[in-house]
Amino acid sequence: MNRAAILLALLVASTLGGCSVPPGGRGGGGIVSTNPCVDAVLVRIVPASRIAAISHYSQDPGGTSIPLEVARRFRATAGTAEEVIALHPNLVIASTYTPAATQAAYARAGLKTLLLGIPDSIAESQAQVTQIADAVGAPSGGKRINADIDRAVARWTRHSANPPSALLYITGDLATGDGTLLTDMMTRVGLRNAAVRYGLTHTGTLSAETIVTQPPDVVIASERVGRGAALRHRLLPTTPQAVFPRVLINCGGPTIPPALKRLAAIRAGL
Questions:
Q1: How many angstroms separate the Cα of 234 from the Cα of each of 105, 165, 226, 228?
Q2: DSSP string spanning 94-163?
Q3: Cα 235 from Cα 212, distance rounded (Å)
Q4: What angle do CA 207, 209, 214 make, to 5 degrees?
Q5: Apex CA 267: angle with CA 145 and CA 165, to 5°?
Q6: Burial, 240: exposed, middle or buried (Cβ in 10 Å; 0-12, 13-18, 19+)?
Q7: What is the β-pairing status of strands 113-116 and 218-221?
Q8: Residue-wise pLDDT tens for the chain (270 aa)?
Q9: What is the CA radius of gyration of the chain?
Q10: Residue 128, exposed/middle/buried by CB under 10 A (0-12, 13-18, 19+)?
Q11: Which of 105, 119, 184, 202 has a 20 to 30 A CA-CA distance from 153?
């Protein structure tokens, strides 16, 4: 998941009820993931019976990187220490943004824990896929995902002496800046991140009023409607607007191939 999406998710107080019984039953053991980007990898490389719980963000249309019908087959937790410890998992995979108190509670309970950061490039994302796969004893699954990524990179990479500029909004006025996985993917398909021109690194708010004097060649956003989208259409009437689904924004790993394909299609349309 990109840095802004993680931070937003951690700040949003969200509770999801009615979670399903995990495929592995109620007897403890298995893997608990409180990181939706890890969920996207796990459901592809290990049997459902080994997944004791996933993150509730994966059951949220705005936070998931896997189909909702898949996510809803699993128990989900809000990531509290009490919930996770009660499941007695063999392994907890969480984000480095997990509160220190929660991490300490895992340690006191004797839980094996793997904390993962936010990859800022395709290479870092592939390394993280390998780390997850090795931790759960499914290295071949990680290799399959990374091979898919390699093929997508080879297929959609486009070199251009003067690439068109693009500004990618994650949600509302929140845009992706320099030094992010999204920027790496944009660059691979032959787009230049216009946010660099405005001095934006990683992610941050960037209003339409800020860019109106030097608009990018294309504005990419996760939604067609909304206050931010409407304002951009009004202030930048001649700038092309393209949609990049939110499900492709939140995470890397297995999301990279379809994300590259969509970005390449946007580039081809300019």
A1: 50, 20, 12, 10
A2: EETTS-HHHHHHHHHTT--EEEE----SHHHHHHHHHHHHHHTT-HHHHHHHHHHHHHHHHHH----SSP
A3: 7
A4: 105
A5: 110
A6: middle
A7: unpaired
A8: 555 544 444 333 333 333 334 444 445 799 999 999 999 999 999 999 999 999 999 999 988 999 999 999 999 999 999 999 999 999 999 999 999 999 999 999 999 999 999 999 999 999 999 999 999 999 999 999 999 999 999 999 999 899 999 999 998 899 999 999 999 999 999 999 999 898 898 899 998 888 998 999 999 998 877 888 889 999 999 999 999 999 999 999 999 999 999 999 999 999
A9: 19
A10: buried
A11: 202
Token pair belonging to 126: 């592939």
